[in-house]
Specification:
The protein is of the alpha+beta class. The chain contains 21 helices and 23 strands. It has a five-stranded antiparallel β-sheet. Strands 7-8-9-13 form a four-stranded antiparallel β-sheet. The N and C termini lie far apart (102 Å).
């Protein structure tokens, strides 16, 4: 397999080559003219010795190309499948066949090229090419003369894929033709490819009965969705995190909820400037040094994760109350698949309105069904997307929406001027799953499909979680898991949002000034300032100096702990300025030493001092203050 440095270097060298080509040609963009590739030995033999393949030439690919490459279990077409036509239509008049030729692709400079640890990615705007270097692969940008004269035949390596422009050819070169190209024309296409792969394979780990929130985190098309992001997405989508993969990803309406909520999450990060402004306000010079207030402000951008309460609309609150009342049926066994249960998802349109107002609008017919969407939107729905086509092919397009359609009267609800509801959150934990936060509880014991729920208020990190058991966090353990608690505690072993985790610079008091230190226990600080920093941290950690509480004096035991901690820090080899103090003991009392106050001198003292100066000038001797007073009195 390729090493990390190979992909990064391929990206850099390809970018540099394109910059040079721009300089040589004076072009900013390069329009694709054709695609080329080498055949395998079997394909060359099949075409005969008189064919170009048989003579060893690199051949041009057309939209009837059926060549594939990649791993045995997951081979991909060399020619973009979005532009392919069936071989049966080859003899149809080309004017009667509507196609999207590769000549529509444009390479808009070096910045559209990126890399992961396993693949090189080229964004052609309306198509993204993802080339996985399964073994080893290299890239070259040839001039058109070099390509025609030297590379098309006379060489001892293979051309896996070549992208021809007017003046240059970008080639992916291999020894064994073991590589894998994938083309994505949009996000939905990536979703469909992965869904199709999961549903038609028996690969270990693709268990379709796993919790949907776990499947969503592992879904390649939702990369970047971790523990806290997934909880927020499912809250905005109105989907229970305790459903299974099949119950959500194979249901058109529920999957559309997830896609719209994920789109909204990404939109808030990339398009709106709230989070970016918050992060930039915490940058001082070149250092990221967020204050506690800035840390806590990020909670505004969390939908549910780590929150004690969540504001929601009156309609969403009613949906949640109806949901909790329905699943709380005390007697009898019931199934969540029973349509007579009237168990509806808690889907609030205002949570995903940004997605519906933009590119996600064409998913409305999947969310509500065709007729209801026509009623809400006032227009005929578009049904030409790849996701709708895939559900149609699977025969599940008309699955129940799990929505009370009669309750949705208007598409966009104006929330301004309305009083929001304040609802408590539910916090859960499962083995190999981590924390799950939601506005709705797990299904009750009377539900046939429900996972067993156990309430727990244990704080110890050593407590064991049996597999398949849902622990609902209560009491101290829930309090310790809140985002606000984590921030105020000052811990660095969690990562919730862009301002958390270790390595942030910190604010320190140095006299009357507040300065930014690159790290805790900054060795460049004075011993006094460092001791104050340690004392403040321990007071906050032990909730002695909490902002919402009255200040209290430290107990003797706590004073002893603080003194020991300060002594340990100052004795550390990293503290460069500690030589000025005796480090064998550092009493806590030293922290309260204040600089001498400036006092006004009395008239007697002023007169005495003036007499001292006169004597200095006349005799050079300096009388004492008592002598000066005696002279004045006599």
């Amino acid at each position: 397999m390729p090493e990390e440095c190979e992909l990064y270097c391929s990206k850099v060298t390809t970018q540099d080559a394109i910059r040079q080509a721009q300089k040589d040609t004076g072009l900013n963009e390069f329009h694709v003219k054709a695609l080329y590739a080498d055949h395998t030995d079997a394909e060359g033999t099949k075409m005969g010795p008189n064919s170009l393949q048989g003579q060893g030439y690199t051949i041009e690919l057309d939209h009837y190309c059926t060549y594939q490459c990649g791993t045995k279990g997951h081979q991909q077409s060399l020619y973009p499948p979005q532009y392919q036509l069936p071989v049966s239509s080859k003899h149809v008049n080309s004017q009667q066949v509507s196609i999207n030729p590769v000549s529509q692709l444009v390479l808009c400079g070096p910045d559209v090229i990126s890399a992961t640890s396993r693949a090189l990615i080229i964004d052609f705007d309306n198509l993204v090419l993802h080339v996985a270097f399964l073994t080893h692969c290299s890239t070259q940008l040839y001039t058109i003369e070099q390509w025609c004269d030297c590379i098309m035949k006379n060489r001892k390596f293979h051309v896996g894929l070549a992208i021809a422009f007017k003046t240059h050819v970008l080639a992916f070169l291999t020894i064994d033709l073991v590589f894998q190209p994938q083309c994505f024309d949009e996000y939905l296409h990536a979703v469909v490819l992965e869904l199709d792969h999961i549903c038609h394979s028996n690969i270990k780990g693709s268990n379709r009965s796993k919790l949907v929130i776990v499947a969503f985190r592992e879904f390649k098309a939702s990369h970047g969705a971790g523990v806290y992001t997934s909880s927020d997405v499912f809250k905005d989508a109105g989907i229970s995190p305790f459903l299974t993969f099949d119950e959500v990803f194979l249901n058109p309406s529920r999957l559309a909820h997830i896609i719209l909520a994920y789109y909204t999450f990404v939109y808030k990060v990339c398009k709106e400037d709230g989070i970016i402004k918050l992060v930039c306000s915490a940058v001082h010079g070149t250092l990221l040094a967020p204050t506690e207030t800035q840390h806590l402000r990020y909670a505004h951008y969390l939908s549910v994760y780590g929150k004690e309460f969540v504001y929601c609309t009156e309609w969403e609150a009613q949906l949640i109350e109806w949901y909790i009342e329905t699943i709380g049926i005390p007697s009898g066994n019931w199934s969540q698949h029973d349509l007579n249960m009237a168990l509806y998802d808690v889907f609030e349109l205002s949570n995903v309105c940004q997605a519906l107002m933009n590119d996600g609008a064409f998913l409305g017919h999947l969310v509500f069904g065709v007729e209801k969407w026509k009623e809400l939107s006032g227009c005929m729905p578009r049904m030409d997307d790849v996701l709708t086509a895939w559900f149609q092919k699977q025969g599940v397009l008309n699955q129940p929406t799990h929505l009370d359609n009669n309750s949705y009267i208007t598409l966009y609800v104006d929330t301004e001027g309305r009083h929001p509801r304040h609802l408590p959150t539910y916090a859960f934990r499962m083995k190999n799953v981590g924390q799950i936060w939601s506005l709705i509880p797990n299904f009750s014991k009377s539900c046939k499909e429900a996972l067993e729920t156990v309430t727990s208020d244990m704080v110890s990190k050593k407590w064991k979680l049996p597999s398949g058991i849902v622990f609902q966090l209560l009491g101290e353990v829930r309090e310790a898991s809140l985002f606000s608690t984590i921030v105020k505690k000052g811990t660095t072993n969690v990562a919730i949002g862009p301002l958390e985790y270790c390595g942030n610079a910190v604010w320190s008091r140095v006299g009357k000034l507040t300065v930014v230190s690159p790290c805790w226990e900054d060795p460049t600080l004075s011993s006094f300032a460092l001791a104050r920093q340690v004392q403040g941290y321990l007071q906050r950690k032990n909730k002695i100096d909490a902002p919402e509480k009255a200040k209290t004096a430290m107990s003797k035991s706590h004073q002893s702990k603080v003194s020991k901690s300060i002594t340990i820090v100052l004795k550390g080899p990293q503290h460069l300025s500690s030589s000025s103090l005796a480090l064998e003991s550092f009493p806590l009392a030293l922290l309260s030493v204040q600089p001498a106050k400036h006092r006004r001198l009395s008239a007697d003292k002023h007169l005495a001092l003036s007499g001292v100066e006169i004597e200095k000038e006349n005799s050079g001797s300096t009388p004492s203050l008592a002598e000066c007073k005696h002279r004045r009195s006599t």
